[in-house]
Every structure is written in structure tokens, then in C-alpha cells.
Write a structure and sequence with these properties.
This protein is α/β, with parallel strands linked by helices and about 300 residues long. The protein has three domains: about 5-80, Winged helix-like DNA-binding domain superfamily/Winged helix DNA-binding domain (Arc Repressor Mutant, subunit A); about 85-160 and about 270-295, 3-Layer(aba) Sandwich (D-Maltodextrin-Binding Protein, domain 2); about 160-270, D-Maltodextrin-Binding Protein, domain 2 (3-Layer(aba) Sandwich), CATH 3.40.190. Helices cover about 35% and strands about 25% of the residues. The chain has eleven helices and 15 strands. The protein has helices spanning about 5-15, 20-25, 30-45, 60-80, 100-105, 110-115, 135, 170-175, 230-235, 245-255, 285-295; strands at about 50, 55-60, 90-100, 120-125, 140-145, 155, 160-170, 190-195, 205-210, 210-215, 220-225, 240-245, 260, 270, 275-280. The strands form four sheets. Strands 7, 8, 11, 12, 13 and 14 form a six-stranded mixed β-sheet that branches. A hairpin with a 4-residue loop joins strand 1 and strand 2 (about 55-60). Helix 1 crosses helix 2. The longest helix has 22 residues, at about 60-80. The protein is elongated, with a radius of gyration of 23 Å. InterPro entries: LysR-type_TF_proteobact-type (IPR058163), LysR_HTH_N (IPR000847), LysR_subst-bd (IPR005119), WH-like_DNA-bd_sf (IPR036388), WH_DNA-bd_sf (IPR036390). This is HTH-type transcriptional regulator PgrR. Keywords: DNA-binding, Transcription, Transcription regulation.
């Protein structure tokens, strides 16, 4: 019978589409994973992965094997996690996949207290603004805003229940260009725009007393609405243009006087984020502890 570690190595590599990605997720080296997969292929007498200099993909045999192994390894992991119930405190690794906004605006209120309450849990946070398959990324749970969830996912509120988008610019910019009095005035202003990882560039939406206004903005800077969002804020502070982002994100700059709020009565509200995870009967102890901690956190 093939060694369980070699089997786990194959599943990790096939799931993450390469040895480097699998190595990061399993805290091992790419060379160790490569050797483990070679041993498994030799033992089974069939190639499981097609390897090129740029990519790694499962063969037909590897794909069939992966389909059968994934639920089996999940069952083994759940069985081993039962031992956590006999510990004074749960232990193990918890992997969360979250967008940058959640890592910046939500998790700082939760993570320090959670780690203090459960020192034997290792929390790993992967920042990714795409809507991903949790199982494919090796994550236990994720945080997202208002996206549709698969039917087998459970979602619970995490963070503030209502948030707003905010509009702001620096005093220096406003002195040169004046203040907009209506969202339509933004068409005459320098707007620092953002693009989603999908490639879509969202329009700026506003709402006041049931009236909605959507503005197609223009400007010299476009940033990725994730990792590069702080560049738009820094540029706005330096006087380069008007920025449109989460209210909580801009509030510290407004409090310090580096940015001035614009059109506040038009700032649109939206529902806060959700923590989501596969709806299985038995949750791993670290995830169960995190869910309970989130449910007991006030906002």
C-alpha cells in the first residue's frame, strides 16, 4: 500500500497546480514533494502528473485518483481531529482565504483575541480577492462580500453588518479643483480608479434618499482593487485626485486631516462580509473554535 505521506503529496501538488504552490501550503519543500510523487508513481506503475517547465497537471489516471482520494483524505483528517476533543484546548492549523479589505478592516479586530484564547492554533491567512474554491486552495474557510455561495457552504456574519463606500480628496487637490456638489460633478474631476482581479472596472455608485447615481469616472491612475488599493489612497493624500473606497479604510486619513470627505450624504451602504465554509457535519476543531469566537465578537 502506498505511503500516506506520498499520497498526500500528490493530492497537494495536483490540487495547487504545481510543486511550489503545494510546498507553500504544506510547509515543505518542492523537492521533497517531487520525490514523494515519483515514489508513488513508481509504486503504482503509472504517471500521475504531466510536468513541464511552466506547469504541472494531472494525467487522466491522476485525475481519477484525485477524485477518489480527496474525500477519503478529508475523512481521515476529520477522524484524526476527533482527538482534539480530548485536549484542554483545540490545536492545529486553520487556513483562511480572505480579500484584502477583510484582512485590513475585519480581521484586526478578531485575530489578536482569537490567538490569545487559542495559543495552540496556528492561523494562516491567505489574501486573495478572487472568489475561490476553498477545497482547491487547501483552505478551511473564507471571507467574502455578497458573492453567491455554493449550496453546500455555510455562511455566518463576520465584522460590521453595514458598511459604506466613501469619497475623499486632499485639501491641496480641492483647493486647485474645487469641491463636487453632486456625483455628476465627478466627471470633471481627476478620479483614481480601481480594477477587480476579474478585469472589470466598476463605476462609482452613489445613493441619497432612494435616488441612485452611477458615474463612469476617468483619471490617470488605475489600481488593482486589492493589493494596490493603498497606492490610490497615498496618491489621493498627495493631491493626485479623488479616491472612492471603504469608509473605514479612509477614515484614519480623514481623522488626521490628510483627506476631506466629499458628498457624504451620497455614500452608498452595503451588507458586511460573511465567513463561509463547507457545510459538513463535523468541523475541524480549529475552525469550530474560530466560528464560535466570531459569533461571540461584538461590532
Amino acid at each position: 500500500m502506498a505511503d500516506l505521506q506520498d499520497i498526500s503529496a500528490f493530492v497537494a501538488v495536483a490540487t495547487h497546480g504545481g510543486f511550489r504552490g503545494a510546498a507553500r501550503m504544506t510547509n515543505t519543500s518542492a523537492s521533497q514533494l517531487s520525490e514523494a510523487v515519483r515514489r508513488l508513481e513508481t509504486r503504482l506503475g503509472v504517471r500521475l502528473l504531466n510536468r513541464t517547465t511552466r506547469s504541472v497537471a494531472a494525467t487522466d489516471a491522476g485525475q481519477r485518483l484525485l477524485e477518489h482520494l480527496t474525500p477519503a483524505l478529508g475523512a481521515i483528517e476529520s477522524a484524526l481531529d476527533v482527538v482534539n476533543g480530548f485536549r484542554d484546548r483545540p490545536a492545529g492549523r486553520l487556513r483562511l482565504n480572505v480579500p484584502l479589505a477583510a484582512s485590513k478592516l475585519v480581521l484586526p479586530r478578531i485575530v489578536p483575541g482569537f490567538l490569545a484564547a487559542y495559543p495552540e492554533i496556528c492561523l494562516e491567512v491567505i489574501v486573495d480577492d478572487r472568489f475561490v474554491d476553498l477545497l482547491q486552495t487547501g483552505c478551511d474557510a473564507g471571507i467574502r462580500y455578497e458573492e453567491s455561495m455554493d449550496q453546500d457552504m455555510v455562511a455566518i456574519p463576520i465584522g460590521p453588518r453595514r458598511q459604506r463606500m466613501a469619497l475623499a480628496a486632499s485639501p491641496a487637490y480641492l483647493e486647485r479643483h474645487g469641491r463636487p456638489r453632486h456625483p455628476d460633478d465627478l466627471r470633471k474631476h481627476v478620479c483614481l480608479r480601481g480594477r477587480f482581479s476579474s478585469g472589470a472596472m466598476p463605476a462609482w455608485e452613489f445613493e441619497n434618499r432612494g435616488k441612485k447615481v452611477v458615474v463612469e469616472t476617468d483619471g490617470p491612475l488605475i489600481v488593482h482593487l486589492g493589493a494596490a488599493a493603498d497606492l490610490a489612497v497615498d496618491s489621493a493624500v498627495a493631491g493626485a485626485g479623488v479616491v472612492y473606497l471603504f469608509e473605514e479604510w479612509l477614515q484614519p486619513y480623514i481623522d488626521r486631516g490628510e483627506l476631506e470627505p466629499l458628498l457624504e450624504r451620497w455614500w452608498p451602504g452595503f451588507s458586511g462580509p460573511s465567513l463561509y465554509y463547507p457545510g459538513r457535519r463535523y468541523l475541524p476543531a480549529p475552525l469550530r473554535a474560530f466560528v464560535e469566537f466570531v459569533q461571540g465578537t461584538r461590532w
